[in-house]
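Summary for the steering committee. One of the milestones for this cycle was to obtain a three-dimensional model of the protein with phosphoenolpyruvate bound, which we needed before selecting residues for the alanine scan. The sequence and ligand used are listed below.
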Amino acid sequence: MIIVMSRRATEPQVQAVVDRVREIGLRPEVSRGEDRSVVGVIGGNAYAYREAFSHLPAIQEIVQITKPFKLASREFQPHNTVVDVAGVPIGGEELVVMAGPCSVEGEEMLLETARFVASQGARILRGGAFKPRTSPYSFQGLGEAGLRMLATAREETGLRVVSEVIAPADVELLVGYVDMLQVGTRNMQNYALLQEVGRTGKPVLLKRGMSSTIEEWLLAAEYVLSQGNRDVVLCERGIRTFEQATRFTLDLNAVPLVRELSHLPVVVDPSQGTGRWSLVKPMSLAAVMAGANGLIVEVHPKPDEALSDGGQSLDFDTFRRLMQDLVRLTEATAGQPA
Ligand code: PEP
Ligand code: MN
């Protein structure tokens, strides 16, 4: 159960609730949002004790949360969260496209890509500077130099920037350069990293672990939320199945299901999700119809020469056609219920 404090609750009033939770032998988890504080009450059948709080002041409501994830659940917050990425809202009316190379390979290619994707309507530039490569001998990214290039591209194009952080110790560095921190599939259950990004005020793009269930993914989001950072965008990026014909199996079931279970925005990465550039457009369109709030797509000026993920990267011409189809699709379905 969650005890939602009223906006004007004072610190001693929150403390009184916390003390009461302890008195009855349950565990309090206080989460101080910008707007109000929430006291999560952890322990078997906590809701049965709700009457024990009826005499305390400044409680707005007591909500029973039946799911293992609490702050991420629709029960806790019925309305959709809209995450503000430095002025670009994700989770509202607009379908937000994030695009760019898998890895930042150099300033020229990054600027060229950024200018192009911006001209086609992308709002956020993606590009890895710290790459979590499966092999230690593969290109590992340009590190801070890559982050500087992203910042230059942001300045020139007005695109916001998202980039992956792979270690808790790097979080502070990334925060200085990017508008959104990406936690990758291989780190979805790196709880130290989740807590560290949860302590920042930056929006977080949380990729689904490639072998994680939806519940584990939402519990990973809960780690970030419970640190006080409410700006989490979930990203379905494909899961491991028996299928070998594609790199991963893009789980589009997850999109409408997670939107039922959670108030957090959901975006889809059809590039990692398929591993094949030719599947990116059809799966992007399918993702939008499934209710995705946005897409994150790999684009490279010369995919054949990319240092990572060339086979799943769109060239400029294909990206243009994708954006045209997305416009047609969103116009055709405007005003219809999701
Ligand atoms: C990426 O976006 O390039 C990436 C490595 O993503 P994921 O963590 O989903 O594999
Ligand atoms: Mn990639």
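Key point for the committee: The pocket of phosphoenolpyruvate (ligand 1) is lined by residues 102, 128, 184-186, 207, 237, 269, 272 (CB under 6 Å).
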